Amino acid sequence: MNPIKSKVTGTSFYDDGIIELHCKKGTELHLERDPSNEHDENAIKVMATTPSGLKQIGHITKTLAKTLAKEMDNGSDVTATITKITGGTNSSPNYGVNIQVEIDDSVGITTWLILGGVLYAIYTFIF
């Protein structure tokens, strides 16, 4: 699938110096489903790696999350990489994060269907 360009939402709410210290162009981010989110059942957290572990810097946009959540729930590997950091200046002190998202579904449903078929074959053979 072609890469999807987007922005991380909520960076001014979640950022506690994390973006400034741990994020730059090319940094890979961790995406984590958040189905219990009270505002959006398709919510996906965007997490940055810090010395003390993963820290949230925002969310995937609601529109994009609707598509990505289904992919992630079906086992696809969804990755995000920072393409640009914006802000952080006197006139624009809050940071923004632009990302590129890629979906690799080659390990998703296909793998489970194959595994399911193997398990079914083993089950049938034993019983």
Protein architecture, described:
The protein is an alpha+beta fold. Helices cover 31% and strands 38% of the residues. The protein has helices spanning 11-14, 18-22, 62-73, 109-126; strands at 4-9, 28-33, 44-50, 53-60, 77-87, 95-104. It has one domain: Alpha-Beta Plaits (2-Layer Sandwich), CATH 3.30.70.2330. Residues 108-127 have low confidence and may be disordered. The chain has a 6-stranded antiparallel barrel. A hairpin with a 7-residue loop joins strand 5 (77-87) and strand 6 (95-104). The chain is globular and about 40 Å long.
Give a nutshell description of this structure.
It contains four helices and six strands. The chain is of the alpha+beta class. It has a single domain (4-126), classed as Alpha-Beta Plaits (2-Layer Sandwich).
Topology of helices and strands:
Elements: E1 4-9, H1 11-14, H2 18-22, E2 28-33, E3 44-50, E4 53-60, H3 62-73, E5 77-87, E6 95-104, H4 109-126
Antiparallel strand pairs: 1-4, 1-6, 2-3, 2-5, 3-4, 5-6
